[in-house]
Amino acid sequence: MTSVRLYIGAYTEAPSLNPGLQSVILDPTTGQMTLDEVVVRATNPSYVITGTNGVYTASEVEQECPPEATFISNERTASSLNISGSYPCHLAINKDETLLATAQYGSGCIDVFSLNTDGHLNEHVQHIQQTGSGPNQDRQTQAHAHQVQFLKTTNQLVCVDLGSDSVHFYNFEEGQYSKEATEVAMPAGSGPRHLVFNQDDTIAYVLCELSETIVIIAKQGNEWKMIKELPALAGEENKEAAAAIRLSADGKFVYASLRAQSLIACYRVSNDGLDLNLVSSTATHGDFPRDFAITSDGTWLVAANQHSNSLTSFKRDTETGELTFSGQVLSIDAPVCITY
Q1: Over the stretch 227-261, which tens digit does the pLDDT of each residue have?
Q2: In the structure, what pLDDT confidence band is assigned to residue 313 with cuts at 50, 70 and 90?
Q3: What strand order describes the sheet that includes 121-129?
Q4: Would you say residue 1 has pLDDT above 80?
Q5: Residue 212: which of 260, 252, 277, 166 has the closest Cα?
Q6: How far apart are CA 300 and CA 152, in angstroms?
Q7: What average pLDDT score do residues 21-35 get?
Q8: Which of 44, 172, 249, 330 suits a disulfide with 60, CB 3.0-4.6 Å?
Q9: Sign (positive or negative) of CA dihedral 155, 249, 296, 42
């Protein structure tokens, strides 16, 4: 395997000295990571995704600033459009790379943008405002859109709402996503943050930030139903800080990061996909792992430790799912997202 280019989203506001979206090179023989370039100077490019033609990010700032969605091409030309809402924290592109969606945590809404054939942002085409609240009076007084995801097998758009304890499925009708969504209720006060779907979009694993649990939902006929709720880490004190969730490419393992415990948990997926069994929990050798990424061949996992200002790499056993720390640490201010 040749070297892997990783893109690192980060917070740039003080005390961070991070200049914006940066790239890092991972050596697949040793796990060593090296800073490569500043891809774009931006304020709080806290989430980043890649497409065929380049990289997308958004500035996680309040509406008055205003926040922008930005595309940086492989040739390093850029285009940006304003986002409607405060603190965009997640992005997704559809399978045809014709649409980009953003989730605004602060205002609980979604924006959809059309993309040109070269990947550049074309125009803002839709705004969807979510509503609702939950029982946690510190965190759930209103809707908080924390993730958007386009399904691979249908034209549906999914939003995970931490504020209202719900997952919303929007259908694509007459060129727009329906204002009314099919809602899957999560346990009250759980605060769903991110989810990951299996390969055929029939099962999803929802990581809940506030309860530090994983909720499994499944499609039965034309309806989505909650199957079960599992503790992310049995026996650990709940510190309301579960963060990222990923599924291995072979569909056999789910990984989740627990920020306050500075751990990444590994779970084996049951044969029917409807259960998870904890395999191990691995210290990230850093503090507050907000995000992590698994390389395309499945042999490396890299964690972004926000509070210790570091990236750490782990060799991954593709048969057992277990992680082994490489000993490699790269200093980088306030890293909060990794993609490749």
Answers
A1: 999 999 988 899 999 999 999 999 999 999 999 99
A2: very high
A3: 88-93, 99-104, 109-115, 121-129
A4: no
A5: 260
A6: 25
A7: 98
A8: 44
A9: positive
Residue 84 is which amino acid? Answer: S
Amino acid code (one letter) for 15? P
Q: Do 242 and 292 form a contact (C-beta atoms < 8 A)?
A: no
CA distance 195 to 166: 11
Using DSSP, state whether 110 is helix, strand or coil.
Answer: strand
CB-based contact 20:38 (threshold 8 Å): yes
**Number of neighbours of residue 103 by Cβ within 10 angstroms:** 29
Residue 242's nearest CA partner among 292, 202, 281, 192 is 192
CA distance 287 to 271: 34
Integer Cα distance of 290 and 304 in angstroms: 6
Spatial distance between the Cα atoms of 94 and 177, rounded to a whole number of angstroms: 13
Q: Which two tokens stand for residue 102?
A: 């953003």
Neighbours of 339 (CB within 10 A): 18
Say yes or no to pLDDT of 133 above 80: yes
Tell me how far apart the alpha carbons of residues 301 and 299 are, in angstroms, rounded to a whole number. 7
203-208 and 192-197 beta bridge pairing: antiparallel
Q: How far is CA 303 from the centre of its chain?
A: 13
Q: Residue 336, by phi and psi: left (phi above 0), alpha (psi -120 to 50) or beta?
A: alpha
Of 128, 206, 136, nearest in space to 167 by CA: 206
